[in-house]
Amino acid sequence: MYKRMSDVVQISLVACIYAVLTLASSSFSYLPSQFRLGEIIKPISTFDKKFAVSMMVGNFLANLFSPYAGPMELLFMPLSNLIGCTLGYYVGRYTRRILGAVFIALWISASVAVTLKVSAGFPLFHTFLSVSAAEIVLLVSGCVVMEQVLKKRGGFVNG
């Protein structure tokens, strides 16, 4: 019972941190390049797949404030975060976490490009490239910092 409650608290906390960081940087979070400061914590899902749920919930909360809010932003993107972060966990687990973070960055970039193409008519390939640049910088940076902190700390939240 304690383990399950602890997981719920950790998942909720990470989701809220994602949403708050994204909203705190909202002046550039909702531009077509999608440079969301909250993305810097997304690599946490390469360490434990339960945090894929955090990214889904955090993304939903942050997207409530998007100028493009609609079914694509509120249904497709959170689901895409759940799937991409779960797959990124396995990529990171069986290769290196940084490769899992790059996988997530490219998955999310493709999802955002499709979302902006469908909901706002943005060019697909150009949007993918600009979002990829921001995603890769943020997720790789976040992954490097997390790995360094964990190396010094000697482990992860639950392991």
From TrEMBL:
Record flagged with keyword Transmembrane helix: yes
Pfam families: QueT (PF06177)
Keywords: Membrane, Transmembrane, Transmembrane helix
Signal peptide boundaries: none
Name listed for the protein in its UniProt record: Queuosine transporter QueT
Residues annotated as transmembrane: 12-31, 74-91, 98-118, 124-146
InterPro entries named among the record's database cross-references: QueT
Keyword GTP-binding appears in the UniProt entry: no
